[in-house]
Amino acid sequence: MSGDAYEILALLMxxxxxxxxxxxxxxxxxxxxKDARAYRKEMRSLPDAGLIGEMVDLDTGKAxxxxxxxxxxxxxxxxxxxxxxxxxxxxxxxxxxxGKGLKLIPARRGLTLLNGVEMRGPGWALHGTQLGIGAxxxxxxxxxxxxxxxPAAYPEPDTILDAADEEIPWTNITVxxxxxxxxxxxxxxxxxxxxxxxxxxxxxxxxxxxQYAYSMEDLRQEQAARQWIDSQEDAEEPEPRSRRxxxxxxE
Amino acid sequence: xxxLQKNIRRVAIFLCALFVLLAxxxxxxxxxxxxxxxxxxxxxxxxxxxxxxxxxxILDRNGVVLATSYNGERIYQNDLSARKATVHxxxxxxxxxxxxxxxxxxxxxYGFNSxxxxxxxxxxxxxxxxxxxxxxxxxxxLSTYIASIFPSGKAGAVVVMNYKxxxxxxxxxxxxxxPQNITASVKSDPQKPFFNRAxxxxxxxxxxxxxxxxxxxxxxxxxxxTIAFDCTGQLTLxxxxxxxxxxxxxxxxxxxxxxxDLKKAFQVSCNxxxxxxxxxxxxxRLRKTAExxxxxxxxxxxxxxxxxxxxxxxxxxxxxxxxTGAGQSALTASPLHMCMIGAAIANDGVMMxxxxxxxxxxPNGTQRAGLTAKVYRKPLTPEQAAVLKxxxxxxxxxxTGTSANISGKKVCGKTGSAEIDGxxxxxxxxxxxxxxxxxxxxxxIVVENAGGGGSxxxxxxxxxxxxxxxxxxxx
Amino acid sequence: MSEKKKKRAHEPGRNTLLAMMAFFFLAFFLLALxxxxxxxxxxxxxxxxxxxxxxxxxSHLFPSDRLLLxxxxxxxxxxxxxxxxxxxxxxxxxxxxxxxxxGCMMLCAMLVRYVRSWKWLTAxxxxxxxGLLALPLVIGKETNGxxxxxxxxxxxxxxxxxxxxxxxxxxxxxLSQRKVFLSLVFAGACLLMLMLxxxxxxxxxxxxxxxxxxxxxxxxxxxMIGGVAGGAAAAVLGYQMFAHxxxxxxxxxxxxxxxGGAGYQIVQSLIAIxxxxxxxxxxxxxxxxxxxxxxxxxIFSVILHEFGLVFGLVVLCMYLFIIIRGVMIARRCRTVFHxxxxxxxxxxxxxxxxxxxxxxxxxIPLTGxxxxxxxxGGTSMLCSLCVIGLLQGVASRNKAGVKEDRELxxxxxxxP
Lengths: 251, 475, 416
Prior knowledge:
The complex is a heterotrimer of chains A (251), B (475) and C (416). Chain A has 251 residues and is an alpha+beta fold. Chain A is built from 5 helices and 11 strands; from the N terminus they run H-E-E-E-E-E-E-E-E-E-E-E-H-H-H-H. Chain A has helices at residues 3-45, 160-165, 175-178, 216-234, 241-250, and strands at 51-57, 63-67, 69-73, 80-81, 92-97, 101-106, 112-114, 117-118, 123-125, 130-133, 136-142. Chain A is elongated and about 100 Å long. By secondary structure, chain B is of the alpha+beta class. Chain B has a domain at 206-355 and 377-470: 3-Layer(aba) Sandwich (Beta-lactamase). In chain B, 39% of the residues lie in helices and 18% in strands. Chain B has helices at 2-39, 45-50, 80-85, 87-90, 101-104, 106-109, 116-125, 140-149, 184-187, 197-200, 210-220, 262-268, 271-281, 283-292, 318-326, 335-346, 382-398, 453-470; strands at residues 53-54, 58-59, 65-70, 73-76, 129-130, 133-136, 156-162, 168-174, 228-231, 234-237, 240-243, 258-261, 351-352, 357-361, 367-369, 375-377, 411-418, 427-434, 441-447. The radius of gyration of chain B is 25 Å and the shape is globular. Chain C has 416 residues and is mostly helical. In chain C, strands 1-2-3 form a 3-stranded antiparallel sheet, covered by helices on one side. In chain C, helix 2 packs parallel to helix 4 and helix 3 (38-61) packs antiparallel against helix 4. Chains A and C meet through helix 1 of A and helix 2, helix 4, helix 10, helix 13 and helix 15 of C.
């Protein structure tokens, strides 16, 4: 093709290219939006998408949706929000491991109770496991169909009144099936206390090996939480029901 | 997880903001500087197109052909002296002169702005494409005359403007050369004939800067006409001594003016008085006035690339401030800018943007660009400008610039003799204008290494104005 | 119309794909008219076909994100187009790199999709990357003031591009396990290696991606302030220590001072962009070859020159959509690791594009990074496609998760 004719054609085509380019951008944008809308619609029809269950607060009966990974704490950014005394801003981190259950990693030792046992390191929770965080008792409810081992069976109360009246057979919940999974229990298992196998979240002195955003506020909260727990042990007045149960367990 | 999602959202907004920044900055810098980059001599794209297009003609304001294309070559004005006089504003085919019309208006000359339909019609007719004809504001005869009277062998620049519209009637730099005969000696000439001193040369303005100092006084002091200066001939500030022209301490010759007022100080160009004035005003106020007049500004005129003038901002001790008031120290300005300052005073305090392009006309007659006068700044009110006009008239009637006077016409001006280190003689400056409504012209002249402004530059101004008045520059 | 045909007609993105195919058909046909070679005519049919196969074909083989694929293929094909116009051999090499890259992309996608426990893999990757980064220091050659290449036989390998992927995976994993300190140590080690190799552009990218991932994972203000301060300090240190950094900053501030020597590259780039104007000078009519390194670092200037500003904005939007899509994928993740990985991929592409286009238009000083998908260079194309592969893997994981949820919901399985 001759040079001049090509020049005319190329000059004409540049407008065509720009128009087609704009068209591509426009249609891609529409595609993006359509996809986002379709996804939102789908998520609306699947209200439990991405969740593995619920965390029920036994005092109020309120259930919060439990995602696969998240944090329990008093801060607004936490996935499970628990307000009140004795609760740190980021209290416990949890992570669902397919086949094993919900792995719980507390931020500080001794501030969380797992089925009445003080947690000194990471632990596992299954359906029905009860957590003690501050003044709150939280129970884990997992959806059926998840790939988790079956917990020791005990009836779950529907309301808090039932929980008060019912005799919870604590003796059924042993260290073995709530703290360690049977196949994971080391030969010289220590019933209480830290599990030296776990992955370096704590050093020998019980201090966290990593700190992030450790602030005076966190320190104050931790001290307040410890003080509160200590004060609960010394108190003579009748305590809330949930604490009474936990106290019985400790002896 | 909730927090993670929130943070991811914020990250996304940040990343999108980066892209918006990219697009916005790109658009801004292209809009502001695009035409400048296009006109730069480093742009070789036009050269590849030159073989496809017959470049358009460059005409002066009256239609005299300054450059045209013939047989694939660029030829310039027939008359040798006219050719040499306009070479800096027109340019040459080898792009030796920076930012001349040949390169700066190349987009018009090479038909870059032609619409698709025009190109198509050329192709259909089988003709080679032609660029637009560019008509400049310069006047060829005026430029030729100025080149003939400029002292031969001296370097310098002359700029003549219409202060009402901002049109540049003459933009010349000396020494000049013949664009059709560029010899090796031209290329190796130490005075650098390719360099366009009118718009790219930065000079110390010397006493012509006193226009700005006086303007600062008028702005800041309501009693400016009662201020008295005591000129003792020698003002000592630290280790600097301010003296006046004609003083030679070694020969015990001391020029002193005694007790004078501002108008008289301006008239006789008393360095001592203006040094004291600068110290009284203080660097901040003087600098503000200078910046109102365009110093330290980044000139981005549409038609012409002018080097930025600068008012010094560092090392401001008393001696420096005093000398700045008198026009020395580290001040620099281009001849075009000094002409604009004079033009502003003449135009009731309104500084117009310099314009070089009257029109760009396509081969089929469509006009692609026109001349619209644009106000650049308003450094003075009309009343303040009137006072300065009066002072500048006094310079010509009874001060250092009497050799610029033309009987029957109101010529106003300010002379300057800038001392340059290493130069035997001072640079001779004259910035002036005709205070006549029918001939609104301002000019600035600088002759390097020539002597006093009043003796070298002012007579040139008189000759130029007289010629203009006799040769049709009367509306 | 039958059910199946109706469904395909309303398949999302069909029109976009058709528009892209039309674009490349016209573009290559125009080029073919210019040079008259039969290969160019052939390409005008082959390239649209590859775009179709690359999008629709791959999404049938492997559950992947069609939108992301189509955007990526558009950019890669644009790269082939521009490089082919500048030099046909380079264009063909780029197409070959694209082919290899697509294979690696699918490998990466499958890696992310099917690997369950990242713990040991990450440890391996971390050790391997430190080793890889150390190699050029030992057996590498110095080019353009950076010593970050080495040769395997006749192929030049740039390990810093491969380590980019390793960095993404390992930093995401470590942060998801809350091992902030370890991730900083690893990133710091990589940065140190890069500084030793004087590959400062890639070091900047590493720093940026790590910073963004840290913010996403922790959101802690003291850490961010520390990061910014550290980055600023490193920048000042780099400026003082390296002479060529000083030169680059000086050229960035005023390239016109030395428009024939050191500033020539950026000056010619700006001039080419201005010559392009809004609509470009026309495909095949430009003189972009005057810009040194026009085929890798300044390829965007070539696009602006020949296609114009409007089309340049189009290309910028394509990159923007890829990033938005990456973030959308990250938001749909169920696990912290995958969300961080997707965010890291999106921010890597975003930062790389920003840095290189910023250098082309004189927003920031020039660095040694290349424009993803479009620049000529085997490792660059490979790395960018692998990053998209990681995103695809995460996206397919999300889809699998949604499918799982739908099945769970169908069972009626709620709380017992």
